[in-house]
Amino acid sequence: MRVEYGKPQDIDVWMALVEEVRWNFPGLETQEKLDDHRETVLKFMRKRQAICVKEGNGIAGVMLFSRGYNMICCLAVSPAYRRRHAASMLMEEALRNLDRTREISVSTFRADDEKGVAPRAFYEKFGFIEDALIEEMDYPNQKYVMHPENSERKFRQISVNKMVREISGILSDCEPTIYVYGSSALNDFQLGWSDIDILVLTERKITEKQAQMLVGLRQTMLEKEPGNPYYRCFEGGMLTLDAFLRRGTDTVVYWGTSGERITDGYLFDSFCMTELIESGVLLLGKDIRPQLKVPTFDDLYADVRHHYGTIRKHAQKTGRSFYSFGWMLDIARCIYTLRTGRILAKTEAGKWALENNLCSDPDALEFALKVRRNPLDYKDNSQVFDYAETLAEPIQRFADILEKELILIGEQKDVKNGRG
User: What homologous superfamily does CATH list for 2-146?
Assistant: First the structure.
């Protein structure tokens, strides 16, 4: 067997293999869809992004890949050639064409799909790691990612997957749905500063025994892997979907920065809800986001006003902490939301504020961004924390600008509502 790049003259033999295995691939159910796929294959052939394994005049396996998206798009092997390394030959050739310094993605069947057993094992053999649950062509799939060697994102995702497995094991009879949202989902996570925001929603009430197991799970996992820096980063709530939707009382397991506890309520503000709906990553269960109400601009405005009050109250004095720099980025994010009605990652919001000359102390905001990008480089730098203690005045001056934005929007709302 040999690997060759597909040529237009191969298309009939190529499509004969596709028709042979079409039952295993959603989106190829009709002749019209097969014809569309044929045209897609020809486009990939013209870009030298279609490869096949040949034996004699026949084709044993085919693959489409995208250099632009750095992904594996399609892989199929004839049943007669399985367990003869045709898929491995295709993967090895594709990886020689893709950028190993960036993430390489592929989608396949989910763990609970019998079609997924062989392909999932195959991708894992090559170093792909489970990622988000997705839907393609109205069929439930799972994204897999091959990360650059030793990338922070790789080790974080491995830890996230372990945490999800532990939680799902404890709540196996409760039908849990698990999301990650916030900085980790927005590609703005920085180890040493950021949290891994997690939300667990169940169909059935969490029992007292399960709650006791969950409340200490971060510590339990850290005891098993003392050197893992991610388990202590997890923050969020675990409760029934019903209580989450109606904002009612429930048995809630809460993980926070200052500790963990079993409580009776857990509420999302409009920023968290928007992040969950727009960019949350589904890791387990069914996607319940269609049931959620998208926050309005008035909701976001109200939460910005609340956050503004918190800044005025608690940032009159700053301490020797990275979170002192965080106030600057929080204000930038609030101003961005007031002006656009959208949510932006904190780092991007800080950059946006600088580019638009919105900060009265740009040096302080630039320094906050520098620390945000590489917090581990500064964790033992006493001069950085000396500077953090001086940030109260720059923060309050930046809050003055946020106050003006709030007043302007408030006046516009009054005019719109006939109160101006």
Answer: Gcn5-related N-acetyltransferase (GNAT) (3.40.630.30)
Structure confidence at residue 186 as a pLDDT band (50, 70, 90): very high
Q: Closest Cα partner for 16 from 46, 58, 63, 72?
A: 58
Report in angstroms the alpha-carbon separations of 398 from 98, 304, 334, 395: 45, 14, 11, 5
Q: Could you give the CA distance from residue 143 to residue 292 in angstroms, rounded to a whole number?
A: 24
Q: 78 is written with which tokens?
A: 């004839």
Residue 419, pLDDT score: 58
**Contact call for residues 73 and 66 (beta carbons, < 8 A):** yes
- 39 pLDDT tier (thresholds 50, 70, 90): very high
Q: Parallel, antiparallel, or unpaired for β 281-284 and 234-240?
A: unpaired
With CA atoms as reference, report the closest residue to 215 among 253, 257, 182: 253
**Contact between 262 and 217 (Cβ < 8 Å):** no
**Among all chains, which residue has been given the structure tokens 């202590």?**
232
Q: What is the pLDDT of residues 84-128, one digit of tens each?
A: 899 999 999 999 999 999 999 999 999 999 999 999 999 999 999
DSSP string, 142-158: EEEEEPPTT-HHHHHHH
Strand partners, 61: 53, 77
**Whole-structure pTM value:** 0.92
CB 78 within 8 A of CB 61: yes
Whole-angstrom distance, CA of residue 108 vs CA of residue 415: 52
Torsions phi, psi for 200 (to 5 deg) = -120, 120
Cα–Cα dist 220/242, whole Å: 28
Contacts of residue 155, defined as CB under 8 A and 6 or more positions apart, other chains included, come to: 230
Neighbours of 321 (CB within 10 A): 12
| Sequence ranges of the domains in the chain | 2-146, 161-291, 297-416
> SS3 string of 287-304?
CCHHHCCCCCHHHHHHHH
User: Would the pLDDT of 420 be above 70?
Assistant: no
Residue 411, pLDDT score: 82
**DSSP run (H or E) holding 369:** helix 362-373
Q: What is the 3-state secondary structure (H, E, C) of 77-101?
A: ECHHHCCCCHHHHHHHHHHHHCCCC
| Short-list 141, 142, 146, CA closest to 126 | 146
